[in-house]
Amino acid sequence: MISPESVVRSLLRARRRERPAVTTLQRRERRRTARRVLLSVLAVACLSGLAALAGTGWNLLREDSAFAVRHIQVVGLNRHAPADLLDALRLLRGKNLVSLSPQDVAARLSRFAWLKGFLCRKHLPNTLIVEVEEREALCTLSTPQGNYEIDGAGFAWKAPPGAGGHFALGPGLSPSDPAVQSAVSDLLRLGLVGRVTALSAAPGEPGLLLSAEGGWTLVADPENLAGQWDRFQRARAWADRFAKDRKTVDLRWSGRVVLREPEVPPEEDPPAPPGEGGPQHG
User: Which parts of the chain have pLDDT scores under 70?
Assistant: First the structure.
């Protein structure tokens, strides 16, 4: 018969045999953890050192005069000479090529309305290449300040010498006005170059004054030039026959045209008779 004392002694002996195995596993786990921590510390130290070296190297590149801009090239031009762009970019000479940003270039090219966009390429150690894209000109407008090209999207710039104007703009209208460019685009789409010669602001009222062939002046709403031109063509034959002295037509009325009375020039004051005033009598 097994006594309780023998059972207890057997359990104690088994526990003593298992304890060294548990202790060995714990030691191995602690060693692995210590190695991992040490490797992590070494990796962080190496990365910090590399970052410090990279920062120092970057600062040296940004401050080294060997990377100063000495040559600037402009490529991609088809209709404009590069001289104006090179003159605008000349102040970039001497700046560090590595630290030069696209904003530095954009600040000097923003005044060229015909420039649609650009791309900077840096060729170390000292060459900056600016590849540009020009806007497509829709037509040329003649203004009192000279001829301007427009693109139909609200941009206008001085036309090259010798460029003829498709339409003339009167005082008060700007070639860069989106509403003006929209009206010009409609006239081009309708094929009215030569039939409509000039656009001007309607004095004291909304709308545009269009100078057309045959001495006609059309008061038009720029929002619907196609429909108004069609009404004018249908009414023109009748007006030429029955109202030859009326050459101003208001097309802004829906479904009809209004012929205006011819403007009567103001009468000049008759000269004062001798002896009734004048400079000779003070």
Answer: 1-2, 4, 7-8, 11-23, 48-64, 263-282
pLDDT at 31: 76
Residue type at position 146: G
In the chain, the number of structural domains is 3
pLDDT confidence of residue 12 = 66
What is the reported pLDDT for 281? 41
77 and 42 in a common domain: no
A 10 A CB-CB count for 43 gives 10
> Nearest to residue 221, comparing CAs of 211, 236, 234, 210?
210
Rounded Cα–Cα distance for residues 24 and 16 (Å): 14
Residue 208 confidence (pLDDT): 93
Place of tokens 């088809």: 78
224 and 211 together in one domain: yes
